[in-house]
Amino acid sequence: MSGLLALLLLAAPPMAVIDEADTVRREPPPHGAIGMSTAWRISDHAPQPRRMEFRRRTLDIGSAIGEHAIAHDEVYYVLDGQGEVVSDGQRATLKPGMTAYLYDGAVVGIWQKGDKPLALIIAYPVAEPREAPISSPAERKEP
User: Which of 7, 62, 71, 93 has a 20 to 30 Å separation from 102 between CA atoms?
Assistant: First the structure.
């Protein structure tokens, strides 16, 4: 019986309905704190277990999410404004309705361009917990 109870406690709820107004905050963008932004960390309000991040972010004029390596696929969808995305040195202009699909292992970033803020939806999988590195032959079970 206790095993069944444990499984029920670990199960995800049927759904989570989140009002973005409950998630909004002003903060420097991640990966370099280049300028300022408004962030809606929507998925942070979803109960565990959850498997993805879903966020909205508006980059102020002159702001950027600096270049950083990603260990998962990631999606930037432009709602409003104009931006320039980079992935492993390749650059592209993004406008409303355009999506950049970025691949695992790439070094990526996005800059606000033009005369109005850049509004984005950003989605990517939650990082899986990594195992602690094995540091000795005994831990590796070597002879």
Answer: 62
